[in-house]
Every structure is written in structure tokens, then in C-alpha cells.
Specification:
CATH class of the largest domain: Alpha Beta
CATH topology of the largest domain: Pathogenesis-related Protein p14a
Organism: Oribacterium asaccharolyticum ACB7
InterPro entries: CAP_dom, CAP_sf
Radius of gyration: 20 Å
Protein name: SCP domain-containing protein
Structural class: alpha+beta
CATH architecture of the largest domain: 3-Layer(aba) Sandwich
Order of helices and strands: HEEEEEEEEEEHHEHEHHEE
Keywords: Signal
Number of helices: 6
Strand content: 15-25%
Strand order of the largest sheet: 1-4-5-10
Number of domains: 2
Length: 256
Amino acid sequence: MKSRFSKKQIAGTVMAVFLSLSSTVSGLAQDSGWHKDEGTKRWWYSLPDGTFYKSSWQWIDGNGDGLAECYSFDSDGYLYTDWITPDGFTVNADGAWTVDNIVQQRKVQELNVEQSKVSTTPVLGINDTSQEEFLSNKEAYRDEVLRLVNRYRKKLGKPALEKDENLQNLAQIRAEEISELYSHTRPGTGEPLHWQDGVNGEVIMRLVKIPDGAFSAWTHSKGHDKLLKEKSYKRAGVGYYVTEDGKQYWVMLFAI
């Protein structure tokens, strides 16, 4: 699928995870709409200008009945189907967001009206987190990440990680830092944390709403998973931060 588009076109696609209120316009060009990749057998959605949705939730009225369903696309532009998305929402075999097996729908007319409203307050999508939610769940979510990792390590015969307050504090600082610069290098110094800082490993994640989403994403990445399973690590700290516009950032630090 990547060979179908230029780098310039890809750069113009939606990168942040949010609900689009403008993707349900009828009368699209013939080549736009749903397409199936014959290699992967997965679906993706192209736009009239040749770009495609990726790393986002989108309301789409695919059959022109005036009702839009909500779909989640991964970082390569493929539709999640019959799955729980990384941010914790259930989608059916068609990729539509469901709650208690009921497909969630919105009237296209209502979505277009919402799009036309101008507001200085960020509009939070279904996988964004409000500041109230963040402050209410912050400590519980940090503890839950550690619990999930320790449960995983126990199954693999690895020793449990002890929560370290110094690492907790540093991880929280790092969670705020990666909301500004998503990198293992720190703003200002341009260098990553290392053993002189009392840190032997770091994993980061963004734009997942719940602890299980961050944990699952790490276990599905070979490099991150290796750190989660490292036998020599004895202590850990977890950071969790949410920006004003509802985007989530997660950090876990490890030490021997």
C-alpha cells in the first residue's frame, strides 16, 4: 500500500488520534472510499486527494444512508476489525465501533454541524482523556501498568519488579517530556537517560487510553518486549501524563 502514495501525500494525512467530523461527505471521486489490500487482505480508506486515513478514528458514511459509523485505522492506514483497539475500544468484523454489540452511529448532518462550530476548547474524541479523568485515574493507572508487567514476568519465570519512588518521579517527568518531544532523548540535553541517572532501560508509548493498551503495545514490539522481560531488572517506575487536548503519554523506567 505504501508504494501507492508519495511521501508528500502521506505527510498530509491525519496523524493525531481524534474523531474526524469531515470524512462523511457523499459524492466522493470514484477512486476514493474503501479499498482492500490483496496482499494483507485488510481494508483501508482513501480520500479524493489521494491521501488515506492513518493513526486515527474516523466517522464514515460508507453506504450513503446518512448515518456514519466510527472506524479506527492503524499507523499504516489499515482498518482494525473484529478486535479491541490499542486504546481499548471494541470493533466488529466490519471495523465499526460497538458498545455491547451495538454499532455506534451518528447522523452525518449532525457531524457537519459540529465541524462548523468554532471553539477555543479542544474537542475530545472517544479515545482522548479529559483532565478530570487523568487526575482521577493517574496513580491507579501507573500501578496497573506495573501490575500487568509483573504478571507477565511471573508467567515467564522472571522476578517481580519493585516500585521505586525515585524511578516513579523520574518516569513522571519523562512522561511530560515526551509529550513535547517524543523520543528517548531528553529535551535540552539531547541525550537519553543512562546508568548515571539510576536508569538501565526505558520504554515509552503514546496515544493509548488505558494501561492495558500501553502494556499490549510494548509486548508486541520486539525491542520493548525485551526490556519488559529482562531478568536483571529489579526496580521500576511508571509515568502517565495527559495533555490539555486529551493525548496520553506513558513511560516505564527500569533499574538493576
